[in-house]
Amino acid sequence: MKLALLSLFASTAAAFAPAQNGRVSTDLSATRAVKKEAAPKKAPKVKAVAPEGLVGALPPVGFFDPAGFAAKASDAELARYREVEIMHGRFAQMAFLGFVIPEKCAYDGAFGDDFLAPTGRALEVFNTDPIWLALTLGVLACLETVRLLETEPGTRTDAKIESLGWRPKSEAEFVNYQVRELQNGRLAMLAVAGEIVQELVNEKPLLVNLQDSGFVSF
Q1: What is the pLDDT of residues 22-47, one digit of tens each?
Q2: What are the start-end ranges of the H helices in the chain?
């Protein structure tokens, strides 16, 4: 009888004992294995390199191409971009003077009280002298047309003034001349954009703003 009771108790306890877990592959273990796998590394971003003979890559930014235009362009397209940049820089330098000189003349009353009236801003020329403005833009358009007809891609920036003797004999010094023109043009493009925005915002001439800020006095 005792042996039968012991056997009954043993079988009952075994029924409530926890089952042994074997090393069986389940969906959960597979998911954990996937998570442990290293994520694929992104390919390093290729930094644009200035083509040989293209000046303008200066510290600290070097060859500045944040939008990646140079990486997508061929050598011919990149050379054209540089020509366009130089020409825009030249126009911007002339445009800067076209702002400052007329505004100074208007401030001094050199061309009468109605010149650039009533604000004295260079942008007033669209209202006060539309005919002269149209003639000026027409002359510039004609000169640009002649330049495009007489030059070819790769020589668009040739201003035909080397005969004046300005070009240095040293090739290294000539490169310095190119860098100076490029940098001055870049600065002028930013300056003209700043002039236009400033005059549209507060409707004051550039020289008046500089005087109010204490930069100039006249």
Answers
A1: 444 444 444 454 444 545 555 444 44
A2: 2-16, 27-36, 69-72, 75-108, 125-128, 130-150, 171-202, 206-212
